[in-house]
# Entry
Amino acid sequence: EEHEEVERNDRLARLDRLIAQEKVEDEASKVMEVKKTAFKCKICRTTTSFVRDECKKKGHKLDTFVAKKRCFECKNCKNRTYTLDRIVPTESCKCGASFWQRASIIRTRRDIPEEKLKVNDEDEKRMYYRSRHG
# Structure
């Protein structure tokens, strides 16, 4: 009876952790843009979130500013891309489509295809062993 109570408390504690993790993911999934330091090269006319090696080597003049980083997902293939200070991506997706939709900056489990979340045989064996041997 005491053993059952300990097991029940363990299960409740795990459930509480899962609920807390889900709340964090819910909040994270609402983040659609973040402010990020960006660099605009006056010679190459590129804007990046890092100083490109080519610009650094050639001593190009760079403007540093704070940009809005936004994430987009292709409606066709679910590929993700980011923009800096642009409302929508200007390029087509790798699949050839150009139908972008806003996406959360932080990828959560909801964004991952279901087949990638399935438990494989090795994980199942490990969970079974842990449930039997603590």
Notes: DSSP finds four helices and five strands in the chain.
